[in-house]
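Q: What would this complex look like in 3D?
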Amino acid sequence: DGGITQSPKYLFRKEGQNVTLSCEQNLNHDAMYWYRQDPGQGLRLIYYSQIVNDFQKGDIAEGYSVSREKKESFPLTVTSAQKNPTAFYLCASADGPTTDTQYFGPGTRLTVL
Amino acid sequence: RKEVEQDPGPFNVPEGATVAFNCTYSNSASQSFFWYRQDCRKEPKLLMSVYSSGNEDGRFTAQLNRASQYISLLIRDSKLSDSATYLCVVNLSGGYNKLIFGAGTRLAVHP
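A: Here is my prediction, written as structure tokens for the whole assembly.
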């Protein structure tokens, strides 16, 4: 089955620890995105990548880092510099950088204790 | 002012009712428009794109008014399974595929 997978579904971490969220897609999509969703707010873009080995900051990149070494993988690291890391993190992909439709993974709910 | 604004609801309606949501956007250069559906604690899923001429998919009708910068979604004959949050999404385009998401309107359909 083609799709986007994110793991883990739930993640608990202590304050001050870095944590890496996984995102994998087998749709052969060039573009991938990371969003954060907080209660009562729309999704906000953290980072995006239009092609392998390239990525750009979104609107709220501070405290996060990414890599895009493989087309199918776009992991997100939440660093200790992120002030309010507890949120629902969503990964998405699109056929190309200018393709309208984005497909989302099931999300990772991160709670920092 | 938020780039995409929606009434958060909730809209509580009985089965079979017709319900309409509106959404306004601030950037007149916006190129394309969508409605996504998000179930509780799940990922958003594309419901439908919105075209200037209006488009219909079964019980769902979407309209775009560029002059007034608003988008609407009409759901006819509501089902219990329609209960979800509906996200209005605008694509600014221009360089890369930047989607701006509204915070969503919650719909609760009751028996």
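A: To summarize the key features: The CA atoms of residues 32 and 93 of chain A lie 4 Å apart. The longest strand of chain A covers residues 44-51.
Q: Very helpful, thank you.
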